[in-house]
Write a structure and sequence with these properties.
- This protein is α/β, with parallel strands linked by helices.
- It folds into two domains: 134 residues, Rossmann fold, CATH 3.40.50.1000; 64 residues, no CATH class.
- It is built from eight helices and six strands.
- It has a six-stranded parallel sheet.
- The longest helix has 15 residues.
- The radius of gyration is 18 Å and the shape is elongated.
Amino acid sequence: MKIAFDINGVLRNTFGKAEQVYQKFYIDEISEEEKEEFEYGMDLPITSMNLIDHFKFPNEEDIMNFFYVDFPMNIFGHAGSVENSTFHVLNDIYYDLRDDNDLIIISDEIEKSKPATLFFLSKYGILIEKILFFSKVTQKTIWKEFDILVTANPDLIKSKRKNKIIVKYQTTYNEDLEADYTIEKLEDLVGLYEELKLKKNDD
């Protein structure tokens, strides 16, 4: 089987770090003049991928600059893992499954978030060999790369292809979406492996 692990929301606490960076630069350290020009603030928890509803900016270009131009290393490179044990568990999965399965890391990245993400993965000592970045433009093409996808991404969950299996990593922004399986921590995937294999064989 080909099993893919999405980075954001499954391996990396991207939005948690974005909240810290936004708090520092747009609330704690912002000048009085900038405060008068625009009322910055956050609406938490994040319950949708329409991020401008949660990180207040004057326009969409400003929020894109926040994530991908001004602070990509701060957010994507220096974010923490979703759980303290995330990469310990993932590397154990790699050792246990690599002989009979193809494992891949995927991530929705653009611009400078790509090198920042590679730094993030190296920081945590990722062992999986194959890493694939995609964007909104190339998202349709990634489905051919795997049979099973572990993801928190609502767009991927909603655009599931026939004969693919989605394992949803539950978050505040996807809890209402249906998936083949739902996990609340990466370790839960270990107990699902045999069932996933049977389901894939049935398909």
